[in-house]
Write a structure and sequence with these properties.
Blueprint lengths: L1 E3 L6 E3 L8 E3 L6 E3 L10 E2 L2 E9 L3 E8 L4 E8 L1 H4 L2 H14 L10 E7 L2 E7 L3 E3 H8 L4 H22 L11 E4 L4 E3 L4 H8 L5 E3 L7 H5 L5 H17 L9 H10 L14 H10 L11 H13 L38 E3 L8
Parallel strand pairs: 14-15
Antiparallel strand pairs: 1-2, 3-4, 5-6, 6-7, 7-8, 8-10, 9-10, 11-12, 12-13
Helix pairs in contact: 2-5, 4-7, 4-10, 7-9, 9-10
């Protein structure tokens, strides 16, 4: 393995058998410790020196890393070995990453480099110093509706750019994939990666998605466009406003069944301070039929602008609400659905990457 001396930061090489042993740096004569494994801090992947792990997900681990050639910090996603062993996935992964890299937008995590290093496949991208929307809600509870709308509007702008420029559908919009930096700028992550995973699936009854945020047409395997992402964005907005999922159940099968059959929830019933116009935005985004949603992200952005421009004068009597965060996060694991009595669920679902390029 290659790694940096902890003293002079020169690159050194050691055998895997030397892991956790001490050696003498040939540059500064300092005694330095060999990292304990391939992805430990100070190890090298291509031109990136690992600093620390930022998060783990279904496709791999994201690390904070230093890019030597440009002397900058990046988020480095390293694929799990299961994915790396699939030549078809690697082809899709590299192609989709390169396509996503063509989009330069202030609300999209910028792609830098995709490649392979000694059998390790990686994806380097912009490092965002902030938190995911999920982390914000779990740490602070429901977000004020004005702040929530501002974040969702920025995300809609990112979706608009991806759709208008390259006809890209994200396929896995969720609070985990929306980052907010220390200035309040929202950044959409994992653009193109869910598509790469979906194209690798060989089982006709399998589809990528996260059950709490997946659209009805994605569950059924029907045609998708940017309005499918808008549905997932609406489910994310509901979660951010209320700290609850729009639909809950005993298991993932129950949840996806509700996406298809249950009445559309109004967040105003959980948080009375939310104006009715904001509730209407959420419910339109969560329309079961794709044609009943906003036509495109621009139309959603216009509706949000109208809601934000209105004076904050609405009040109502508080109804009984659920405790923030009562929805179980355990149901975001990989799932497989069965048939309902009406046979309207015919697909198996599998949770895709949790990616946090902070």
């Amino acid at each position: 393995m290659y790694f940096q001396c902890h003293s002079c930061e020169q690159l050194l090489m050691a055998d895997d058998a030397d892991a956790s042993q001490f050696i003498i740096c040939g540059h500064c004569d300092c005694v330095t410790k060999v990292p304990e494994h391939q992805f430990a801090p100070r190890t090298l992947i291509d031109e990136f020196v690992i600093k620390k792990a930022l998060g783990h997900g279904g496709m791999g681990t994201v690390y904070l890393a230093h890019q030597l050639s440009l002397d900058r910090m990046v988020a480095l996603k390293v694929l799990m070995s299961d994915f790396a062993r699939s030549s078809e996935f690697i082809r899709n992964f590299i192609r989709e990453a390169r396509i996503a890299a063509q989009i330069v937008h202030p609300n999209i995590v910028q792609s830098y480099k995709v490649g392979e290093w000694n059998g390790v496949y990686f994806f380097a991208m912009e490092y965002v110093n902030g938190r995911t929307l999920k982390e914000i809600v779990m740490q602070e509870g429901p977000v004020h509706w004005r702040k929530a709308l501002d974040i969702i509007r920025q995300t809609a702008s990112a979706l608009d750019a991806a759709w208008r420029e390259l006809q890209l559908v994200h396929r896995d919009i969720k609070p985990d994939n929306i980052l907010v930096d220390t200035r309040g700028v929202a950044k959409l992550a994992d653009l193109g990666l869910a598509m790469a995973a979906q194209e690798t699936i060989t089982d006709d009854d399998e589809v990528m998605g996260t059950p709490q945020f997946i659209s009805p047409e994605q569950i059924l395997g029907n045609a998708m466009d940017v309005r499918s992402d808008l549905y997932s964005l609406g489910a994310s907005l509901f979660y951010v406003l209320t700290a609850n999922f729009p639909y809950t159940g005993n298991d993932a099968r129950d949840i996806v069944t509700q996406h298809l059959q249950a009445p559309i929830p109004n967040p105003c019933n959980l948080v009375p301070e939310i104006p009715p116009t904001v509730g209407e935005i959420v419910m339109k985004l969560l329309a079961k039929r794709i044609e009943d949603r906003y036509e495109d992200p621009m139309e959603l952005m216009t509706a949000i602008d109208t809601a934000l421009a209105a004076p904050e004068t609405y009040t109502r009597t508080r109804n009984q609400t659920r405790t923030p965060g009562t929805a179980s996060f355990k149901t975001t694991r990989s799932i497989k659905t069965g048939k309902t009595k009406k046979k309207i669920i015919s697909k198996k679902l599998r949770t895709s990457t949790r990616h946090r390029p902070e």
